[in-house]
Amino acid sequence: MTEQHSYRFERGTDGPKVVLVGVDGSDSSLRAAAYASGLARRQRALLAVVYVQPVQAAGAALGAPVAVTTDEIAEDLVAQIREAAERVKGIFEVRWEFHTFHGDPFYGLVKAADELKADAVVVGASEQAGHRIVGSVAVRLVKAGRWPVTVVP
């Protein structure tokens, strides 16, 4: 006796539900945001755009207005995202949210990915020469091995 199995192809049920992208205003992070938005659109996933505001105690001790500067960066990033979303409105839609976390970029992105239940993390390649020796945020995220990580050049 032969058993017959009916196999059905499921469309749109696999893949990430939340795609997290780390942005800091650098060119590579903005390219990562563009890549992540395409991924989120194709997967019909939520795009969680995350900016980690650095905590710079040394700058604050010297009287530098660190919080004001990083708040301005966050506001500028939100404005850029809204502008880009408006330009493509009607062509393709992407559900997105903007989140700000404080601290070290690596730990901030880990916390964000955990709290937002990210299925995939997208970051830009580091543009700082010293990261080739010490290790970039992207490399540290890949080594953490908790989510698929895409590093966009």
Rg, nearest Å: 18 Å
Task: List the uncertain runs.
Answer: none
Q: Indicate the structural class.
A: alpha/beta
Give the CATH class. Alpha Beta
How much strand?
A: 15-25%
In round numbers, the mean pLDDT is 78
CATH fold name, please?
Answer: Rossmann fold
Number of strands: 5
Shape: globular
List the topology elements.
Elements: E1 18-22, H1 27-43, E2 46-53, H2 57-61, H3 66-87, E3 96-102, H4 105-115, E4 120-124, H5 131-134, H6 137-144, E5 149-152
Parallel strand pairs: 1-2, 1-4, 2-3, 4-5
Overall description:
It is a single chain. It is built from six helices and five strands, in the order βαβααβαβααβ. The protein has helices spanning 27-43, 57-61, 66-87, 105-115, 131-134, 137-144, and strands spanning 18-22, 46-53, 96-102, 120-124, 149-152. Strands 3-2-1-4-5 form a five-stranded parallel sheet, sandwiched between helices. The mean pLDDT is 78. It has a single domain (18-152), classed as 3-Layer(aba) Sandwich (Rossmann fold), CATH 3.40.50. The longest helix has 22 residues, at 66-87. By secondary structure, the chain is α/β, with parallel strands linked by helices. Helix 1 links the parallel strand 1 and strand 2. The relative contact order is 0.21. It holds the Pfam family Usp. Residues 17-153 form the UspA domain. This is UspA domain-containing protein.
